[in-house]
């Protein structure tokens, strides 16, 4: 895989935005009552499968972490040879990787969290009581620090950030193991761990996509993150193998068809599927499509490296974090239009909110980088 291709993958950047939109529509389903698509005289259930949207982000995060770990290991081997085999401090390396991810997220989280904190005070009508405000402030600290998926009580200031909390915790658990035993982990342990966790959640809870369910030793959302990020790391190693092959035009066309099919099936499932059905099948389709997108062996890679697509990818974190601003504005103050119009307004208002979040988040991030 070329350096350019692995740095910014246009297909993945576009799909980040697509899956964020699907997640927003799922939350419209949950919050606004967006329960059906009306096509002529037919009423088709809507968005029940949308809660599988975070699986895309867990898989991509795991794949990118696998790529980073492999690069780090290769670089560290060279540096150790130069330094006469000086022992590696894996604890420091893990924390360095974690903090890099945490600080890349925190500025945008800070701005969205602050805005939603005051919106929650208003919507829950506790802003005029100092004692209630202070209690709400204290209760929100674990969520502000993105610790909620450890199991600490959360007041759900920005509930969609559960995914970030689970991802960050999973990084701390998986990075040192994957770094220390890379080949064994990505080839053997990771896929076994992934299917074991997802299968156990399905057997015990009936689903692995309900992040709020308690699974005895932790939230299902956290266990799901560990499983799917592990699967993503295995997908990276498989993508390296496929990328190394000399393939015919016919085989490349076949892989492109598989890539498109997996993404298409997942999107259709999110739009029309029912929750807790065919979950593992959809995750497998999605894993294959993401893996193929990183091989450089499928068609149209250059067509997706458009500035507007890369911009959507850059904006995606702010867009994802801002969705409850758009959703609550529509829920509280825009109640009369038809459901389809309200859902469209949620997406548009979310993007409008994301623009200042991105702008000021970039400023905060630059200042933090200068301090570091």
Question: Could you describe the 3D structure shown?
Answer:
The chain is mainly alpha-helical and 372 residues long. It has one domain (3-371). It has helices spanning 3-7, 10-31, 53-82, 90-123, 130-139, 141-144, 162-180, 182-205, 220-243, 249-272, 279-293, 307-321, 323-333, 339-371; strands spanning 36-39, 42-45. A two-stranded antiparallel ribbon has the order 1-2. Helix 3 packs parallel to helix 7 (162-180), helix 8 (182-205) packs across helix 9 and helix 10 crosses helix 11 (279-293).
List the helices and strands in order.
Answer: HHEEHHHHHHHHHHHH
Number of domains: 1
Q: What can be said about the biggest beta sheet?
A: 2 strands, antiparallel
Return the structural class. mainly alpha
Indicate the overall shape.
Answer: globular
Provide a count of the helices.
14
Measured distance between first and last alpha carbons: 31 Å
Q: Tell me the helix content.
A: over 70%
Trace the largest sheet across and list its strands.
Answer: 1-2
Structure summary, number of beta strands: 2
Average residue pLDDT: 92
Percent strand:
under 5%
Low-confidence stretches: 1-6
Short account of what is shown:
With 372 residues, this protein is an all-alpha fold. The chain contains 14 helices and two strands, in the order ααββαααααααααααα.
